[in-house]
Request: fold
Amino acid sequence: MSEISQSGVSCFVAGQLLATARYGAVENKKYLVISSNFGLSQIIDPFGNIVKSADSTGYKILTGDIVPNQTRTWYNKLGDWSVLLVSLLAFGLGLIKYRSANQNKNFS
Reply:
């Protein structure tokens, strides 16, 4: 049986959340913040280290420095336009295929 912390959250579940968050921070090479009303709140650096932590006893404010990532992804550079154009292209090709299939039925 798993231990239950003061906040009523399983320690096993809290540990799994922390492990997943640390893995995500390392994978994306970005800072990650875990924020909780009734549990640990933490700041994790891009290397998976916990930089700051606030426990669940009483009211706390977690403050810390988070460095924004300077590299831009393709989505940051192009924005929504690339996704919209690809979606429009797929819709247009589907419409053309649908119309050509229906025209072949009418001539048969």
About this structure: The mean pLDDT is 83. The radius of gyration is 24 Å. The first strand starts at residue 32 and ends at 34.
